[in-house]
Amino acid sequence: MNRRFFNTAGPCRSEIHYTVDPLPRLTGVRELIDSEQYFILHAPRQVGKTTYLYALMHALNAEGRYTVLQVNIQPAQVARTPERAMHVIASCIYRQSTFHLPETERPFALNEDSPQISSLQNYLSDWAQANPKPIVLLLDEADALLDENFLALLGQLRAGFEARPKGFPQSVALVGLRDVRDYKIRLRPDSQSMGTASPFNVKSESLFMQGFTRAEMEALLRLHGDATGQIFAPEVCNEFWRLTEGQPWLVNALAREITVKLFDNDTSQAITLAAVATAKEQLIARRDTHLDSLADKLREAPVKRVIQAIIEGEPPLADAFDDAVQYTADLGLTTRSNPVRFANRIYGEIIPRVLSSSMERIIPTDFVDPVWYIRSGRLDMDALLRAFQEFYREHAEAWLEKYDFREVGRQLMLMAFLQRITNGGGRIDREMAVGRGRCDLCVTYGGERFVLELKLLRHPRDEARGLSQTARYCQSLGLTRGYLLLFVTDDSQPWEQRLRWEERMQDGVAISLLGM
Q: Which of 312, 313, 310 has its CA nearest to residue 325?
């Protein structure tokens, strides 16, 4: 019987989880440790940081040159004072050492009422002086601390830095979701300065852990095939990569959804593209913990700024935008390269759905009754968009005025309208990125595809650009017809002038132009 499975919670253990060797995923760590450096290791949630730290700790301890300890300091998150936080961190260090270090290499014991510790600096200094080997300390979840306590931790590490390696840990890694530079976003308003580029000025380098490479993803999926005979065929691997771009939690969750939830561990069933599509929809609809945690970030000011720019297709005119882009990339929501877009197609689908879900729930049923738009299994897109024009005229002004994402509310309103119709019978593929100047949708229903291009009408040339962009998008998909929706941003313009439906030809493509 195969005992291993795809893991979606906590660090991977190779004896029970399908696991690829995490150590090759980061280069340069050993060099930083050998040269007595302090450094940052950051990556989005559930990319494999903790799995990597455990593998590094076990590998280096087996070599025998260092005393290496991985410590999760998240329990200090609830501490209300820096003094209490430092005491909790010291307690975490001691408890973890009892599981992973021989007694001769452990720090002195602590309990909740211990008077022995006056500062974390002293605790680490005493440990280093008594320890027979140089200490390497890997502090996981460091950015979970309250701001004041996090800065206190940095101060304690700075204070002991010059005494390393005899009187303080030789190398310390702060591990979390964010690079320390991101704290200038969290610790100060945009108009103020901390007076330094980083609040941790003894760190030598910041390392970012990427998701799986294509080869690593395929190696992980192949482990299941080797163990059970139920293979992930090349076309299925291609679809996994297209949807996840190697995000480790998504890869594992998608594979687990198919093998456990859809197939009920029946390894005789073939893994097909249809199974992948069903599993993807179920993940998005259920919004497991990982996907829900992404949704919680969307209303943070820097995240909101970038999300709106991606959906709209235009970067905002703001000095802080570059910082916001870096911040959302560090959280794993967006790409780290241009053009800035959502990090993968599943995120690109779930984020707009989350933002438009409140609209989707309250759209009057009269407007989205499938009986008006779906006939003999085929979608009447013309009828659907004419109904949306009517709905938009009746509700846009009132809804957008109180909507948190007003700048992209028009686009999200249409997506909510379409989602109510396509749920259970079709899908919407979204193409969005900063600088594209529009948002492209491809609706698939009943074997037919419909291209919809959404564009804000701000400048006289936007209509001509939109027609050209729509034609190119249709041609890239091999389609000869598409729809261009132009949303007027001047609220003072009468509806009689805004609403229109015109048929145009552009570069051999028939385009229905809808004014909104």
A: 310
**Max Cα-Cα span within the chain:** 83
Q: Please classify residue 22 by burial: count the beta carbons closer than 10 Å to its beta carbon, then call 0-12 exposed, 13-18 middle and 19+ buried.
A: buried
CB 214, CB 46: distance < 8 Å: no
Own/partner contacts of 344-347, CB < 8 Å, gap of 24 or more, are: 344/243, 344/244, 344/245, 344/247, 344/250, 345/242, 345/243, 345/244, 345/245, 345/429, 346/243, 346/244, 346/247, 346/250, 346/280, 346/283, 346/284, 347/247, 347/294
Distance CA 513, CA 200 (A): 54
Using one digit for the tens of pLDDT, what is the confidence trace for 262-304? 999 999 999 999 999 999 989 988 877 677 777 778 888 889 8
The enclosing H or E element of 428 equals strand 426-431
Paired sense of beta strands 439-445 and 448-457, if any: antiparallel
Q: Which two tokens stand for residue 142?
A: 């460091």
**pLDDT tens-place string over residues 60-73:** 999 999 999 999 99
